[in-house]
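Problem 3 from the worked examples.
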Amino acid sequence: MLTSASFHLSETKTSNYRRKIYLRGFTLIELLVVIAIIALLMAILMPALAQVKKQAKAVACQSLLKQWGVIWSMYCDDNNGNFSRGLVTDNGWHRGEWVICLRSLYRTKTNILKCPMAVKRRILSNGTEAEYGGTFNTYYMPLGGSGSTGGAEEPSYGGNNWIYDPPPGTIDIQSRPAEWNWRHKDAAQAFRVPVFADTMWRGGGPYENGTRGDPPQYDSQWINYNREMMHFCINRHKESINMLFMDWSVRKVGLKELWTLKWHRQFNSNGPWTRAGGVQPDNWPEWMKKFKDY
């Protein structure tokens, strides 16, 4: 027979037992195991997530370049199919003339000047901002004359300076022969002619080799504004850049593939930096040797 006291004692023991069950937490070893598992999962997932993020930015970059295709097409349609002159006398930087002639068409579009992978200025070792950009950096574009700081823009796209339509009698633009320029949008094999792309400078007019055509010795190398091919040869999108062509198509271009494109009318797309021209993997700078050959 259970008395009131024995019932109370039994209830207390049961309550204490339950409390011990409910209050029991992880032991130190169990906690360390859980932390280790979480750390392992993070180590596995983080690189994959980072890669997905980069791929998303690359897609966004191509989307922006397609918008640039519409802008360039509109400009050409308004000018009998011709590109802009490529010569400006009020600022001193012909390579960035596209900014002036297209500004009214892009001005209302947010961040259309910047590849999503390159949105901040390049910082030099002394802590100051560089005028030129880099693989993941924007460059400086004044709105006024050369050296102006008022209302500056900071793009990370730039143009092929061989597309321009210079005035009659023009012999060259910044030592680039005017007779080699495309001038008009209806070029033969327009799908091979670069118009606009990821860059580290305002624009470039690449040659097949030499000072204006050789590859950089390391990624994001800057020597001078006239190192034409270097402005485009940057590892922004996994051994490639994104590019708008004269047929207004957009695609990824391998860095070594840059030398196979038709930059100007006389450009040898089988030149010395192509497989057809005899280049060997060991001929490339160390940072490019393992990239896909073209």
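Problem 4, a separate protein:
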Amino acid sequence: MRLLKQVGTLVLLGAVAGGGYYGWEAYGLTKVVDAKASAPRGGERAVSVETELAGFRDLKVIVEAVGSTLALRSVDITPLAAGRVTKVSFASGDLVKAGAELLRLDEVIQQADLVEAEARLTEASHMLRRSETLKKQHATSEASFDNLTAKVAIAKADQARAAKRLRDRVVTAPFSGVVGFSSVEPGARVDVNDVVTVLDDLTSIKVEFSLPESLFGTVGLGKHVIAHAAPFPDRAFDGAIDSVDSRIDPVSRSFKARAIIANDDRALAAGMFVHLAVVLDAEKALAVPEEAVVADGSRPYLFVVEKSDKAQRISRRYISTGRRSFGYVEITEGVADGEPVVVRGIQKVRDGSMVKTKDQSGPAGSKDPSEPAKKRGGAKPS
């Protein structure tokens, strides 16, 4: 009996000791957690970011298209006569003036024909003058005088024909431009239809492209066009709509338009693939830089800097967007005019982060978004 009492006492003491231990552990853990939760955030470091103010800007409505460049004028250079080449006066890529000699053929026979034709004209003209003198003296018949007059006319025609054949032995540039490749060398024989080279006028470039039927009547002559080509990623080329097709394609439901792009330094070549932005009317809209917008599934967001407890903290805002134009995005919901949005350092912050800002932009609309910091090509059409 005494043994059972001793065992019961030991069990009771063990239960009390175990409960006390676990209670102490729970109480101590709670105190640690509470201490961590209530610890000040004085050790948090502010992340450096760059911001720009959301604001109303003139967003130009643009329509994007693609096309290939064509020379303003282009022609295959072919000789007007057959013969042996005696001189080649150009190299591939040369810039030539209108009327410049490109190719010369052997011309000995043509020179001789011209000399003969000029001699016959001289003889016929001399005989006609003698006949005129005799006619005044009534010493020759009217028929003889008429015959000599006809011979002079024939001699003039022969002389003009011979001169033209001689000129055809020289191939010249019909307009100023850049010549292409040629495999013709002195001594080679060419025929009338042989293409010896091509000549392109690249002072301006033509671009033909298609636009949807819904824009027919909206895109008119003179509309501003900006072209971008892969070889010049940091350059924009300005131009204007030159012509619009009068028909809608019944299959694609689109119509063709053509733009003339300024190319004074001949940077663009014929056959280049270009991206086009046709600029329509500008409208005021609340906008932020494209780099401020972060894609998150179906709805984008951005980071707005807000002041909180004498510190600047990040607030993630889900937004609705509208048009895009020259590096800016229209914001239709989620941001107010004048709020600073993060444009640099986005990858270093999250909702609630403490930040310090630098290079904050001035008032919204202080610069025209249609003028990106890129080297422009040519003059902007009026």
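Solution to problem 4. Residues 23-40, 362-382 have pLDDT under 50 and may be disordered. The two ends are 116 Å apart (CA to CA).
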